[in-house]
Every structure is written in C-alpha cells, then in structure tokens.
Amino acid sequence: SFTLAIVGRPNVGKSTLFNRLVGRKLALVDDQPGVTRDLREGEGRIGPVRFTVIDTAGLEEVTDASLPGRMRALTERAVDSADVCLFLIDARVGVTPVDRTLAELLRKRAPRVILAANKAEGRAAEAGLIEAWELGLGEPLALSAEHGIGMDDLLRALEPIAAEFPDAAAIFEVDVGDEVDDNVDEEGGGAALPAGRPIQIAVVGRPNAGKSTLVNAILGEDRLLTGPEAGITRDAIAVTVDWMGTPFRIFDTAGMRKKAKVQAKLEKLSVSDGLRAVKFAEVVVVLLDVQVPFESQDLRIADLAEREGRAVVVAVNKWDLEEEKPQKLNELREAFGRLLPQLRGAPMVMVSALTGKGLDRLHTAIVKAYAVWNTRISTARLNRWLAAQTADHPPPAPAGRRIRLRYMTQVKTRPPTFVLFASIPDAVPEDYKRFLVNGLRRDFDMPGTPIRLYLRSGD
Ligand code: GDP
C-alpha cells in the first residue's frame, strides 16, 4: 500500500483530517499536553482504499521563533517518507506566504501532490478555494475534515494512486471468492523487491533485550533519535535510514521511548506501543536476549506478528556473551521449533548489537524475508503444483464424500495469500490445509512469512 503525508502550516486542520482518515480508535497518542510529537502515523482508509497516513502533528504546538525552520525540516521528512502528499490550506484564510513557501517545496520535492482547501464548509470559503489555484498545484479539492465534506473527491483523487500500489485496495476484506486476481506474469512470479521504497521494520522484544542498542547500531552516525533538536525528534514514531545500501524505516517501540525519557505518563501507553509497531511494520525483528530467550513476552509478540501477517526475523542478541556457541545454537533451534511452530521457516540470526557482529547477516535476512513476503506466484505454476500434490496426497474423503480440489490462485501478497476452490470446502481438514501450506512454503521457497490459505466453494 502507499503512504500519504498530510502537510501544511499549523492550524489548517491536519490533525482533524488525520483522525478522520485513521479513525479515532486507531489514532496515536495525541492528547498528552506538553508532549510535542513530531511525525505521527496511522493506518488510514477511505472507502476501499487503504494507506498509511503521516501527519506533521508536532508543528501545532511549536510557537517560538524556530517554527519556520522546523516546519520546513518536518515537512521535508514527511514528503520524503510519502508516496503522495496531501497539502492543506485553510479555505477561510486563503493563501498565505507560508503556504506559498510550502507549495514551492512540494513542487520541487514531492512525487505526487493533492491540493486541498480545508474548512471549506460554507460560503466564506469560496474565495480561498479560488485563490488556491494560484499555488500551481492543480485543481484544489474542497474539504471539511471536521464535517466530513469532500471525502468522495479525495477518494477519487487517491484511486489512481491506489492503482499504482495494488495492495492498497482492500479487495480481500470484501469477499475473496469474487475478486480473483489472475493478472500475473506466467513466467515471472517469485520474490521481487519493490524498488526505492524503504522497508518498514519494527524491533520488538522484552526490555533489555538490546532493542535500543540494535537500532542505534543500525542508525550508526545517522542518530536521528538523539539530534540537537532532541525535544522534538526523540519522540519520533519512525526514523528513516540507509542501512548498508537499503532504505529502512524503523518504528519506535516502547523500549526506545523509555530511553528517550519522555514523561512517565507516556510509559503507560507503551505496552500497546510494541503492538502498534507490529501493525505498521512490514518486517518484524523479534529480538531475543540469548541469556533469557523465548520469554512469554517474546512469544506473545512473535505470535501477534504472525497473526498480523508480517514477515518475521528472529534475532538472538548478546551472542558475544555466549561461551558454548554450538550447543546453545542447538538449544535455540529446538526451542524455536517447539515454542513458535507458527513461525516455521522464519530465519534466526545470532547478533551482537553491542559489537556489531552478525548485523550483516541480519540485514540479509530482513531483505530476504521482505522479498518473500512480496512473493507472487502465477496461477499456472500454482495449479501445476496443486495437481502434483493432490496426485500424491489426495484430500481425505470424510464420510465417503469425495472432496475435489478444483483450482488455486494467489489473491494477494504481503503476506502471500491463496484461495483454493473445492467442491466441499468445509470438509477439508485443518491438517490437510497445513500440509498444503507447508508444501507451498517448501516448493516456492517462502521462509519467514506467514502464508494464508482460504477455501472457497467452486464448482
Ligand atoms: P532495550 O530495553 O531492549 O532497548 O535494551 P538496551 O538496548 O537498552 O540494552 C540493554 C542492556 O543490554 C544495555 O546495558 C546494553 O548495553 C546491553 N546490550 C545490548 N546489546 C548487547 C549485546 O549485543 N551484547 C552485550 N554484551 N550487551 C548488550
């Protein structure tokens, strides 16, 4: 799916629009007085189109003389993290000099811009809407984030963008049986990396596993979490970094926030913080402490990552402390298979965040898991495979009723999701489905990603 950044000067209504797109219950912490947040992020949706929304929320609270500089810096960061920018002006105020400056920045820097005049309810807004044309960003949409006006127009503006990022359409939620996407390259398929966009990762694990140390090691000299503007940047929800030639976006989690010494109040919210990071991430790095591996907290979050359909890489940290490495490795492998059977096939990498050892292998594992998560297998290959599987191992015949498996197709990537049409779908036992999923994982080389298989009736 794609990322939409809401940009504009303070008080044009960015947060209101953010809340409307994300839905209040999903909105990130926002009513903490005195906590300046920098970029916040949520999962947005209009009609069938889904996307990530970024909002330069921290700006609203900054009143001092440094505002222009911060506004530019924050807007640039938002623009650089986004596939499309939604630039808001206030229709009642009209175009201000600050709006012109931002418009110029967007024209130069943003790949796609949608211009919108907000607070456009009522006649007082007409003049502002007409003025907005002069920004040279095309036809302005008339919106009222507060009253929900203009959302249809916004949807129409987003649809062509959603079409460029096929996963943005929520076809799967509606009814998978009706929406079979057979538009795949017969020869190609397999894992492919969408070029250019950062891989979104979250590092999760129990306190003291070494999450902050690992993230700082990845950030290297580029320590965005502790810059001179610490008050604002430390509370960032995500940082973008080039790590060994690959762009990554790393989501902040509870442990890192603790290190950032934000008020105790925020700590209470931090339990759900790791969970939130999982929702935003594409690849979840479950960081274990080699001295206390596979704690219940680790197991819970790893399970959540699987259920949320994320790619998962398990990293075992503090490997530098381990004396009996080969023996420990065997123990860890055994524990992994026993305690996290749902993550079968996920890579496990030994690292030392402190010394930097093993980080190159972690990098490779993450990139590979991400590629696998994006795997696309053509329908022709799938059905040749299915025919071979069922010839060797036909489905059982419960109570004498023969189940015919007709046809299989991949409806979605991220994670790879398949639909199998069967004559009596409800009669296919769970262990036969598991047999097929394990076979898919093995024969199409898909370690480290959840695989979904749904049965539908097809005659
Ligand atoms: P977090 O709570 O998960 O963010 O953990 P921290 O990054 O704060 O690390 C907790 C402690 O473990 C700190 O004292 C780190 O110096 C230490 N630590 C982190 N990574 C390693 C490692 O790879 N090896 C060793 N020996 N210590 C580590």
Quick summary of this structure?
The protein has 459 residues and is of the alpha/beta class.
Task: Please describe what this structure looks like.
By secondary structure, the protein is an alpha/beta fold. Helix content is 36%, strand content 20%. It has 16 helices and 15 strands. Helix 4 (126-131) links the parallel strand 5 (113-118) and strand 6 (141-142). Helix 2 (67-81) packs parallel to helix 3 (97-109). It is flat and about 70 Å long. The two termini are 33 Å apart. 41% of the residues are buried. The model is unreliable at 25-36, 168-195, 222-236 and 254-271 (pLDDT under 50). Guanosine-5'-diphosphate (GDP) binds at residues 205, 207-213, 255, 317-318, 320-321, 352-354. Residues 205, 207-213, 255, 317-318, 320-321, 352-354 line the site of guanosine-5'-diphosphate (GDP).
Percent of sequence in beta strands: 15-25%
Tell me the number of strands: 15
**Stretches with pLDDT under 50, minimum 5 residues:** 25-36, 168-195, 222-236, 254-271
CATH classification, class level of the largest domain? Alpha Beta
CATH superfamily of the largest domain: P-loop containing nucleotide triphosphate hydrolases
Cα Rg? 24 Å
Number of domain modules: 3
Q: Tell me the major beta sheet.
A: 6 strands, mixed
Helix segment tally: 16
Features:
459 residues; alpha/beta; Rossmann fold; GMP Synthetase, Chain A, domain 3; six-stranded mixed β-sheet; 15 strands
Question: What's the topology here?
Answer:
Layout: E1 2-7, H1 14-22, E2 40-46, E3 49-55, H2 67-81, E4 84-90, H3 97-109, E5 113-118, H4 126-131, E6 141-142, H5 151-164, H6 171-174, E7 199-204, H7 211-219, H8 230-233, E8 238-243, E9 246-251, H9 254-259, H10 264-268, H11 271-280, E10 283-289, H12 296-307, E11 311-317, H13 325-339, E12 348-350, H14 359-373, H15 379-392, E13 405-412, E14 417-422, H16 430-443, E15 452-457
Parallel strand pairs: 1-3, 1-4, 4-5, 5-6, 7-9, 7-10, 10-11, 11-12, 14-15
Antiparallel strand pairs: 2-3, 8-9, 13-14
Helix pairs in contact: 2-3
Bound molecules: guanosine-5'-diphosphate.
Binding site for GTP 1: 8-15, 55-59, 118-121
Keywords: GTP-binding, Nucleotide-binding, Repeat, Ribosome biogenesis
Binding site for GTP 2: 205-212, 252-256, 317-320
